[in-house]
Specification:
Aspartate Aminotransferase, domain 2; 38% helix; 15 strands; 13 helices; alpha/beta; 385 residues; Aspartate Aminotransferase, domain 1
């Protein structure tokens, strides 16, 4: 078994930066370049034959690899461009919407992109809740879907999903679990949770890059739901070019048009490393390093806005410091990569390849920036990522 420190060499950007932003964009694994080169070679040398030699199937073969990481059985997870598209496909299964069951019980702490999707639907009523307890209270027989986040992106807080799923099952509603901030850093078993759908992406802890969103559909639902937002990959015989739709079996029927094999090839480099190490081992290290972050922040007098309870803490720690946007800009100028969010603070997310030295250095540099007033070099700093 390789020591976690040995994985630093898998990520070239670590040679010249202190990289603590995997909660936003995981660094590119070295082998991603090789996988992209393989895609390029196939396009160059094999041309149209590449579709039959692997490109066409990546939507579900790569989906199966994601499935292994999140506790999903084979054939239940497929790739999409991003989470918003994945949720739109899930929503399309219930078109036309029954007026008696048209409520979306939503959580304010979710990433807002998905909220925009539901708010734009004229036949849906979006009920916004402030916390997980209120979600359980507001789910009733009028509820259609309950989109929730496993880990909230601003505070890095793990949600108690089970009571929400249980209540949804009682009234016939469907939970869509957004695992973007948990997959690859927090152990997750979508089968055990019993959620109807799970969505996520690879930009963050999976280190799989953009264009690699994914959708899990519970097996019993995958065989009976019929999405209306679909394309030819969802057809049982796509290359027969039939005029009428006949749904493919399983989660494949939740696909849309032509896949993106270039993104899928690149993404597997990050997934391979997560599978090799194991999410449980990654989580153990994450809890230790996020606790170190909290201890150092406390000693420096920085306000911690993430959960102190390890059972409720995701992979990132949010620190509230004066002028945090400008402090972040100065950190970036010093090649210490993290990010910040409005009304939250600076977010720091160590991953399995980070050292304790990285964490100590980042906290020391925040202190130096505040003490010397170096942040004043960045008036009007705003979030760009």
């Amino acid at each position: 078994m390789r020591e976690l420190a040995e994985y630093r060499s898998e990520f070239p950007i670590l040679e010249h930066t202190t990289y603590l932003v995997s909660h936003s964009l995981g660094p590119m694994p070295r082998k991603a370049r090789e996988r992209l080169a393989e895609f390029g070679r196939m396009w160059e040398e094999r041309g149209i034959r590449a579709w039959a030699e692997g490109w066409w199937e990546t939507s579900w073969t790569v989906g199966d690899q994601i499935g292994r990481i999140i506790g999903a059985p084979p054939g239940t997870t497929v790739m999409h461009q991003n989470v918003t598209i994945a949720e739109a496909v899930a929503l399309s299964c219930f078109r036309p919407v029954d007026p008696a069951r048209n409520r979306i019980v939503y959580e304010r702490g979710n990433f807002p992109s998905v909220r925009y999707l539901y708010q734009a639907q004229p036949d849906l009523e979006v009920v916004v809740c402030e916390h997980e307890g209120e979600i359980v209270e507001r789910i009733d027989e009028r509820t259609l879907l309950v989109p929730i986040s496993h880990v909230l992106y601003k505070a890095g807080e793990i949600q108690d999903v089970e009571p929400i799923v249980r209540r949804a099952h009682e009234v016939g509603a469907h939970v869509i679990l957004d695992c973007y901030q948990s997959a690859g850093i927090v152990p997750l078993d979508v089968t055990a949770l019993g959620v109807a759908f799970a969505v996520g992406g690879s930009v963050k802890w999976l280190c799989g890059g953009p264009g690699n969103g994914w959708l899990y559909v519970r097996p019993d639902l995958a065989e009976r739901l019929e999405p209306t937002f679909l394309g030819w990959q969802a057809h049982a015989r796509p290359f027969a070019f039939e005029e009428e739709m006949e749904y493919a079996s399983g989660a494949v029927r939740f696909l849309t048009g032509t896949p993106n094999p270039a993104a899928h090839y690149a993404g597997t480099a990050g997934y391979d490393l997560v599978e090799e190490i194991g999410v449980a081992r990654i989580r153990e290290n994450s809890l230790r390093q996020t606790q170190l972050l909290i201890n150092l922040a406390d000693a420096a007098g920085f306000e911690v806005r993430s959960p102190r309870d390890p059972a409720r803490r995701g992979g990132s720690v949010v620190l509230q410091v004066p002028e945090f946007a400008a402090v972040h800009a100065e950190l970036e100028a010093r090649d210490i990569l993290c990010d910040f969010r409005p009304d939250a603070g600076i977010r720091l997310g160590p991953h399995y390849f980070n050292s304790d030295v990285d964490i100590r250095f980042a906290i020391a540099q925040i202190g130096d920036i505040l003490e010397t007033g170096a942040y004043e070099r960045h008036p009007g700093a705003v979030a760009l990522h």
